[in-house]
Amino acid sequence: MGQKYGRDELVARMVRAGELEVSGEHQDELADYFAVGYSSHGPGGFESDYAGLAAYFQSLRDAFDDRTIRRCIIVVEGNTIACQTWIEGTFVREFTQSPEGPIPPNGRRIVFDLINIFQMDDNGRFVEDYVRADNRSLLEALRAPAHADFRRSESGLLYVPPGEGLTKWVSGDTYTIKAAKGDTGGSLSFIEAVVPPGVGPIAHAHAAEDEAFFLLDGELEFLDGDRTFIAGPGSFVFIPRTRRHRFKNLGATDARALFLFTPAGPEDFFIEGGDDPEPGKRPVVWDMDRVMQVADIAERTGLTVLPETP
After folding, report:
1. How far apart are CA 24 and CA 295, in angstroms?
2. Given 94, 127, 151, which residue is the final one in a domain?
3. Are residues 88 and 204 in the same domain?
4. What angle, 0 to 180 degrees and rounded to 10, lies between the N-to-C axes of helices 7-23 and 50-63?
5. Within this chain, do residues 213 and 245 fall inside the same structural domain, yes or no?
6. What is the rounded distance in angstroms from the CA atom of residue 101 to the CA atom of residue 110?
7. Has residue 35 been placed in a domain?
8. Each residue's pLDDT tens digit, 148-171
């Protein structure tokens, strides 16, 4: 019996498995991606079966918020896949399975930079995985001093220092997520936005969340159903759930705004679908191919696109 899956299908299965490991969703589906007798070989003599791998990712999910995973530089030869993997998250709770055991949180953004070589069987299931990682650099990041003003108490208090937060590029805009649903118990999410001239999202509505904006710099044109109005610095805008809206920068300089969702949840669209910033570059407006890549995320997060008539 030959291979059941072609190259693209094997890559898609690898990407999907990584997403499930990092998100913690659909663990029964995830288990189907691994063959009986699966083994993982990591740096420093680390050896694990599937149960050990699942426990490791559980500890990672427990310790890090706003997690993302990216795979790139993918090479496929038969049933073997090699790739570079980046897993990123904000270190907010004790990490029990670091290379040197439990480490307390420091509030910093941590990147796990890995090289993976996966061996898959003819049914597209993982049989073996070889992992290469720079544990020394990882430990330096995990042990870095906490920000002097970093606070996260058992009461749920959260303080995010200036310049901190997960930043994503979304169709030309820059969004820095100061608080996501995991930080606030789902009550709200809070985001800082930079909107370049001529840029802004397509008209849309949120199924179950209200949205509010406070303008810091520049001006934004807001759509309210079918009418538009201009909001300048110091303006506050509240948009009820299900209301068709969008904003656009019609000026000549960047606009800056703060906005929040209540309850939290729509920020997952930015976290999962947004682009990672590239030093020295500016975000670009997405073309239709890029928009279609995030269609499933939009549907899952309750975002409905309602384009304006030309």
Report:
1. 21
2. 151
3. no
4. 50
5. yes
6. 16
7. yes
8. 445 555 567 788 877 788 899 999
Residue 275 corresponds to which tokens in the numbers above?
A: 């682009």
The pair of three-digit structure tokens given for residue 20, joined into one six-digit string: 């499930």
How many angstroms separate the CA atoms of 79 and 3, rounded?
8
DSSP E strand stretches across 23-100: 34-41, 47-48, 64-77, 80-91, 95-98
271, 68 contact by CB (below 8 A): yes
Distance CA 14, CA 126 (A): 9
- Per-residue pLDDT tens for 117-153? 999 999 999 999 999 998 888 998 888 776 544 555 5
Least Cα distance to 175 among 297, 257, 262, 240 occurs for 257
Residue 259's domain spans which residues? 165-305
Q: Are residues 140 and 173 in the same domain?
A: no
CB 25 within 8 A of CB 9: no
Judged by phi (left if over 0) then psi (alpha if -120 to 50, else beta), residue 127 lies in: alpha
Q: Are 273 and 301 in contact (CB under 8 A)?
A: no
Burial level of 289, CB count in 10 A (0-12/13-18/19+)? exposed
Whether residue 113 sits in one domain with residue 171: no
SS3 40: strand
Report the half-sphere exposure of 98 (CA within 13 A, side-chain side): 23
Alpha carbon separation from 133 to 46, 55, 259, 307 (Å, rounded): 11, 19, 38, 45
CB 197 within 8 A of CB 251: yes
Instruction: Report residue 162 as tokens.
Output: 């200036």
